[in-house]
Amino acid sequence: MKKLFLLPALALLGLLFFQGTTKTSNGYEVSPLEIMPDMPANVKAVVDQKCYGCHNAESKNDKGKAKLDWDAFEASKKSKQVAVMKKINEVVVNGDMPPKKYLENRPEGKLSEADIATLTSWSSGKKK
Ligand code: HEC
């Protein structure tokens, strides 16, 4: 099953490569190569631990799910991904996620300095 996706993904990757970098309205340089077709492993690790629980397709947290569904993220269009990444960058830079209320009972869910660096450099399209 997985293999079937490989060819179109590679073709897309080639296409994106020739397009070079895209500048978003926010002025971020986002290289499509860095977000497609997969997120870097270090970003995934942080997301898995600190964000995914509320932001997934099965989440009971309806508000969180509506705002961001990681299960849909990778399959969504690049333009959508870039928009979502901008939002992610915003909430992480502002320290709005994970929600403060949640952290009161789950201090271990707080982002470390390293987590913040990983998420912000990825979501702003910079190199690691
Ligand atoms: C405890 C559950 C929970 C966790 C953990 C959590 N979120 Fe959220 N997130 C929410 C909820 C609830 C909202 C909707 C908030 C609202 O609408 O006021 C939200 C909204 C968002 C939004 C949309 C903000 C907007 O203004 O559109 C982004 C982006 C986001 N979260 C990213 C993250 C990231 C990145 C992480 C991990 C670092 C994370 N979230 C962890 C519950 C969570």
TrEMBL record:
SMART domains: Haem_bd (SM01235)
Signal peptide: 1-27
Cytochrome c domain boundaries: 9-127
Keyword NAD: no
GO MF term set: electron transfer activity; heme binding; metal ion binding
Keywords in alphabetical order: Heme, Iron, Metal-binding, Signal
Keyword Oxidoreductase among UniProt keywords: no
InterPro entries in UniProt: Cyt_c-like_dom, Cyt_c-like_dom_sf, Haem-bd
Domain of life from the UniProt record: Bacteria
Stated name of the protein: Cytochrome c domain-containing protein
Organism (species): Lunatimonas lonarensis
Lineage: Bacteria, Pseudomonadati, Bacteroidota, Cytophagia, Cytophagales
